[in-house]
């Protein structure tokens, strides 16, 4: 759609701008201020320069958490996006099945995150959980509180359980907006199932897929509550992701300076990755038009 | 689509298996909420052998528990209303006009959606203390706008771009003022979009815990925080924990049930 | 209402004033010659000068972090490197 150039549109955006600036810019400035100072409480601050940044950047603890988090996000995207598309393609298109599917699938999305953690904590337990009990009776000595690999598997399955529905719902919204005429034309041309997907459904889903991939990436990169409830970051540090590490530092140890420095590094990484994602996908969008 | 476009005859099995996978852990929670603690910790049973309502009675008779639900619902509803109201004009501006710095503003809004709450938890506490807003519902509602407003703008912009511009122009020629056109003509056209945006705002505000917990102490404490506190205090009362968990699922389930027609309608509109 | 909790220092204040000044300057530039001078540079997609400023600032932030992480000498060198980088971005991207 051709848009008109009109700077008065700023007035329409102003409420959003003020509201978000209040909640985003002031805290961000505060974090920057804290990151270069040391404090012993009582709003007494001492200049520390770049010491905290050096400390964080040279600590193996930070790099481990970063890699762990990147691998986690990669695995999550690799499972949830294809699975979400597959499920959306096979959803019923009309009849009673549609609302039933939508309501049931959206259910995990509306469970508070710590409850999701609680559900899986209980479900996976060997003594009182169905999953843990079942796996152990199959002869697999599954125990997510002892074995790092099992803890990882549990956290990943939990995230797939929790968030795949978001991808499904968004893809489904994209799919249903395709007019029947497209499918009829494809049928007349004798198009294969794959080419219908590749040339009709996938392009139409592009915009919603952009939203889904961005949302899933960002959320998995700042995941905190669910793994914290299930594993508490352990066993050892094996499921300590960036946010868990950060909260440990900021609230657990009250190291404001290092925590603020880590926040900034964390935020910059997210900013960079999101910008890359956003640019790549909007560019491919523009090329298609 | 008159026939199943996916082509395969057993395609319907995929969503069915997926839904079973979704419901199993939830079933387990519901199952536990009707058991006594001795049964939970004793033999593994697939359904409660002597069902009890004790766990729910505990929650409904203790103000510390049920106030948590009321608090959560108050700030979530406030947040949803604020987010959608401010996002509507902004999304209209983004979908219809080009203006100074529009693309960067849009990206900047999205970066706030991406910012990890852990980064903001501490300065938020200081910020809202300075304004004397700690432990109020409005504080949590405004704090959650940080990620909900950008999302609402993004979703609404998508829906609004689907409405042809000719409709705006015709309305202006017919002598409609902008506010009247927006409320009388434009909003009904994107009603489904508003429904979807409200759904997402409700959802993300309802499930967020870190910020909500940081900004509240007693009067506005959300249910999710009440759960963590009570569990650590009284050891592991699995039954009450499960019952509280089940009760947090219910408001969400109700919301989905109400917006499902909106969503379906939105799909129908998109096909025109 | 007091803002002492924000713990302002002169260097951070200068930092934020610089950033806001850059954004304001860009706004003025954009106002007098709208469009943002879009072109396709070495990254092979279209950028406007706003994008170029963003890439410069973000890249500078990472240059500084790398400098600190690798234990380089005075941070002023990192700043000089960032300026060179920013000029490169505005010239070629």
UniProtKB/TrEMBL annotation, chain A:
Entry annotated with the keyword Heme: no
CDD domains attached to this UniProt entry: TM_PBP2 (cd06261)
Recorded family membership: Belongs to the binding-protein-dependent transport system permease family.
Family annotation (InterPro entries): MetI-like, MetI-like_sf, Sugar_ABC_transporter
GO cellular component annotations of the record: plasma membrane
Pfam families: BPD_transp_1
Record-annotated ABC transmembrane type-1 domain positions: 66-277
Domain of life: Bacteria
Transmembrane spans: 70-89, 101-123, 160-183, 208-225, 259-280
Subcellular location: Cell membrane
Protein name: Glycerol transport system permease protein
Keyword annotations: Membrane, Transmembrane, Transmembrane helix, Transport
Automatic annotation (TrEMBL), chain B:
Database matches in PROSITE patterns: ABC_TM1
Keywords: Cell membrane, Membrane, Transmembrane, Transmembrane helix, Transport
Subcellular location: Cell membrane
GO CC aspect terms: plasma membrane
Predominant place of localization: membrane
GO annotation terms (biological process): transmembrane transport
Domain ABC transmembrane type-1: 69-259
Membrane topology: Multi-pass membrane protein
CDD domains per UniProt: TM_PBP2 (cd06261)
Segments traversing the membrane: 12-30, 73-94, 106-125, 137-160, 181-207, 238-259
Annotated family: Belongs to the binding-protein-dependent transport system permease family.
Protein name in the entry: Glycerol transport system permease protein
Organism: Rhizobium wenxiniae
TrEMBL record, chain C:
Keyword tags: Membrane, Transmembrane, Transmembrane helix
Pfam family, one: DUF2160
Transmembrane portions of the chain: 12-32, 53-70, 76-92
Official protein name in the record: Putative small integral membrane protein
Lineage: Bacteria, Pseudomonadati, Pseudomonadota, Alphaproteobacteria, Hyphomicrobiales
């Amino acid at each position: 759609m051709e848009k008109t150039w009109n700077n008065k549109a700023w007035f329409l955006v102003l409420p959003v701008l003020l509201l978000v600036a209040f909640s985003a810019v002031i805290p961000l400035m505060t974090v920057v201020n804290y990151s270069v100072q040391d404090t012993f409480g009582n709003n007494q601050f001492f200049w520390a320069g770049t010491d905290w940044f050096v400390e964080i950047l040279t600590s193996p603890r930070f790099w481990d958490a970063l890699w762990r988090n990147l691998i986690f996000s990669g695995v999550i995207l690799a499972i949830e996006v294809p699975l979400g598309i597959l499920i959306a393609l096979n959803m019923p298109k009309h009849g009673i099945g549609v609302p039933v599917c939508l309501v049931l699938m959206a259910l995990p999305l509306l469970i508070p995150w710590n409850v999701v953690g609680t559900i899986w904590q209980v479900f996976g337990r060997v003594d009182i959980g169905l999953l843990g009990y079942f796996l152990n009776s199959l002869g697999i000595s599954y125990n997510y509180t002892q074995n790092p690999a099992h803890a990882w598997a549990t956290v990943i399955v939990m995230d797939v359980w929790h968030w795949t529905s978001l991808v499904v719902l968004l893809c489904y919204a994209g799919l249903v907006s395709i007019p029947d005429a497209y499918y009829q034309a494809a049928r007349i041309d004798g198009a294969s199932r794959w080419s219908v997907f590749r040339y009709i459904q996938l392009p139409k889903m592009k915009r919603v897929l952009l939203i889904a991939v961005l949302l899933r990436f960002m959320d998995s990169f700042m995941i905190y509550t669910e793994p914290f409830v299930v594993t508490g970051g352990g066993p050892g540090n094996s499921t300590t992701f960036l946010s868990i590490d950060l909260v440990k530092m900021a609230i657990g140890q009250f190291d404001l300076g290092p925590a603020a420095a880590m926040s900034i590094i964390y935020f910059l990484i997210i900013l960079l990755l999101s910008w890359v994602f956003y640019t790549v996908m909007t560019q491919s969008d523009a090329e298609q038009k | 689509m008159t026939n199943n476009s996916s082509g395969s005859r057993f395609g319907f099995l995929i969503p069915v298996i997926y839904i079973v996978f979704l419901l199993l852990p939830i079933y387990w929670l519901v199952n536990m909420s009707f058991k006594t603690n001795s049964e939970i910790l004793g033999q593994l049973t697939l359904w409660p052998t002597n069902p009890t309502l004790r766990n729910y009675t505990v929650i409904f008779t203790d103000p510390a528990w049920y106030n948590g639900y009321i608090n959560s619902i108050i700030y979530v509803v406030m947040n949803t209303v604020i987010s959608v109201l401010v996002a509507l004009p902004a999304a209209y501006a983004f979908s219809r006009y080009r203006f100074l710095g529009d693309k960067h503003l849009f990206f900047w809004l999205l970066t706030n959606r991406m910012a990890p709450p852990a980064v903001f938890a501490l300065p938020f506490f200081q910020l809202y203390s300075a304004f004397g807003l700690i432990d109020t519902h409005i504080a949590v509602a405004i704090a959650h706008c940080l990620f909900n407003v950008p999302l609402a703008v993004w979703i609404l912009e998508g829906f609004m771009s689907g409405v042809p511009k000719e409709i705006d122009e015709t309305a202006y020629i017919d002598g409609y003022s902008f506010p009247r056109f927006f409320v009388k003509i434009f909003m009904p056209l994107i009603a489904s979009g508003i429904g979807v945006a409200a759904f997402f705002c409700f959802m993300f505000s309802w499930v967020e815990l870190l910020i909500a917990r940081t900004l509240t102490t007693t009067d506005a404490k959300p249910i999710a925080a009440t759960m963590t506190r009570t569990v650590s205090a009284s050891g592991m009362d699995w039954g009450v924990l499960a019952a509280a968990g089940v009760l947090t699922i219910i408001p969400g389930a109700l919301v989905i049930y109400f917006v499902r027609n909106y969503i379906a309608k939105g799909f129908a509109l998109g096909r025109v | 209402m007091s803002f002492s909790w924000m713990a302002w220092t002169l260097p951070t204040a200068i930092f934020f004033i610089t950033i806001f000044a850059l954004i304001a300057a860009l706004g003025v530039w954009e106002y007098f010659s709208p469009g943002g001078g879009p072109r396709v540079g070495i990254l092979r997609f279209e950028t406007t000068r706003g994008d170029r400023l963003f890439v410069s600032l973000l890249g500078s932030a990472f240059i500084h972090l790398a400098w600190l992480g690798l234990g380089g000498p005075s941070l002023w060198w990192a700043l000089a490197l960032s300026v060179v980088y920013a000029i490169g971005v505005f010239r070629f991207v």
